[in-house]
Amino acid sequence: MQLNMRSNSKEKEILIGISDLEEDKLSQMVRDFIELDHFETLQVDELVDHNPTTYLSLQDILENVTDAETEILGKILFYWRNMVNNNMKPKELRQWIVNRLRMDHYEASLCKTSWITTFGRPSAFTFTGDYEYIDVMMKESNGSVRLIVDIDFRSQFELARPTQAYQDLSNSLPSIFVGTEEKLNDIISLLCAAAKQSLKEKGLHVPPWRKASYMHSKWLSHNCKKIALFVCI
Asked: CB–CB of 199/159 below 8 Å?
C-alpha cells in the first residue's frame, strides 16, 4: 500500500499565506520536492509491520502542520529552486536563507547552540558540542510562535549499522524541517527511543551523541546565541 499523500493537496497547503509568489513556479517546485522526498516512496505496510506504534506516532507528528510552518517551508523551497549559486557550503546556505527571509520581512535569525556533555563514571570524559540552525518568529492571532528550520534534518538521525525498522523510520523524516519547538521535541524523543532499541538489537551501546539529552541540546539548548550576518544575496 503506497502512502496516501497526494501532491495536489500538498501544493494547496504550501500555497497558503504566500500569494505574493508566482504560483506556477511555486507549484512546479513543490511537485519536484514531493517527488524527490524519500518519504513519499516508502511503503506504509512495511513500516507499520516493523513498529506500528512508533511509525504511526511519527506520522501523526509530521502531518500536524500549521499555516505558519507551511508558509515558511514554501518560501525556503522557492528560494532554493531559484538559487543562482548552487555551490554554497551548508553554513553559507543557512546564512543566505536567513538573508532572503529577512528581505521578505520575516524575523529570521541564524542560531548557534553550544553545550557540554559528560559520560563515563564518574563523568570521566567531557566534550563540548555546537550546532547551527535557523529560527523564524511568526506572528499569530494569539501571539508569536518560534519556528525552527533545519535544512539537513534527516541526516542528524542517521545510525551506523541500523536495523531495517530504524532505517525506514529515519528515512520518513523530512530532509528540510520547519516546525515548533514542541514538534521537534516530540520527534527527538521518539527517534532517540527508536535508535536506542536499534542499537540494542545490534548488540551496541548507545553513544552519548545519540542520547536524547544530546540531541535536544542541538536545537533546544539554553545556551543559544544569534549570529550577526552580513547581507549576502
From this structure: yes
